Universal stress protein
Amino acid sequence: MLKNILVALDGSEIAARVIETLEHLVFSKETKVILCHVFPTPDSEIELPADRPHPESPVLSYFQIEKLLQSYQEELSVNSEIELVTGDPAEEIIRLANIYKADLILIGSRGLTGMKRIVQGSVSSQVVEEAPCSVLVVKQN
């Protein structure tokens, strides 16, 4: 039985597919869904070398992300809450999964390959490797 489901959302177009996938799961009355977003630390961009491409993600404000997660929360038919944290995305998702004793992590994958995957890394791959529970990775298509 899935009691605690951690849903990692990044504000991109894949987030809607993650929520759509979540809606197809069967919940018990005790299920709690935690919608989370991790804001990268300001110094994480400074660490990227100037001669390498930087991640191409639109920067949404705290307020925009909070409103987006609240809109998703309103659509859910189960008990839910929102977690907005700052840090390394994969590390924070794993930390939240441990705190909430998650039975499942739901996360999107941008489908990076080749050099982009090497430079930008893959949050979903790191979460799959290090998570304390099962992980459901939602692909873009």
Observations:
- The chain has six helices and five strands.
- Confidence is low (pLDDT under 50) at residues 45-57, 115-120.
- The first strand starts at residue 4 and ends at 8.
